[in-house]
Amino acid sequence: MASENSTMITEFILLGLTQSQNIQLLVFVLVLIFYLIILPGNFLIILTIRSDPGLTAPLYFFLGNLAFLDASYSFIVAPRMLVDFLSEKKVISYRGCITQLFFLHFLGGGEGLLLVVMAFDRYIAICRPLHYSTVMNPRACYALLLALWLGGFVHSIIQVALILRLPFCGPNQLDNFFCDVPQVIKLACTDIFVVELLMVFNSGLLTLLCFLGLLASYAVIICSVLVHGSSSEGKNKALSTCTTHIIVIFLMFGPAIFIYTRPFRAFPVDKVVSLFHTVIFPLLNPVIYTLRNQEIKASMRRLLNWHLA
Question: Which of 140, 216, 238, 260 has the smallest number of CB atoms closer than 10 Å to its CB?
């Protein structure tokens, strides 16, 4: 046993999304097409918001950061997954695995906090409109942005610190297509009960509390709009914005709650949920916002017409 524990593994073998070659090929083609179409759309959103002087409101400032976060988040898993689909042996080094896990939770945690900030922005804009320009001034927006990046970093570094303390002496097969906490800690050759509880608390409980808090805040906002809304046009615009935010909240937090709020036991649907959580939904979130925002759509059309003229 001593000799076994002294041999620490230096790499993990990823078992992938599925063992079926036909399904792998189908998923590869679909994800690649989706990636090549939607990812440029995210960068177009960022470019549009940055280049249009009419889109300087805090809502658009945070939406641009959401597009940046989601595009960055998609780079953590999708490119390597596409390469691994074409590889016979899917191997990732121990350091590469820890790095992937760190950025996954750093950007994911930051995005979750960004959605909280966006909910706060909508609450002030709709329920306290007279105080909006005072509360959501440029300095406050940058302070909130710094706070959410710092919050994502703290959340992720806790995960990594707990994993780095674990010994890994074999086996080294990860039953997934990327490195994440539930699969990695199961390979530790020590008792992980306490670590597992800490992980569930750090990821699962915080995710659930943020989700419930966001739903409660939007319920308050919607009630305020219905009760105190002045014009039908203003009501419709506010309700449309809130509906969009709620859709993204479910897309962001639904899979995360399923993955992280329960003890880390494997379920057959885990890989499918992880695929949507790490690849599909992050790229869709800013697009959903854009399709329901007339100002951004009009600005994007002007930008495209100017470049094509």
Answer: 216
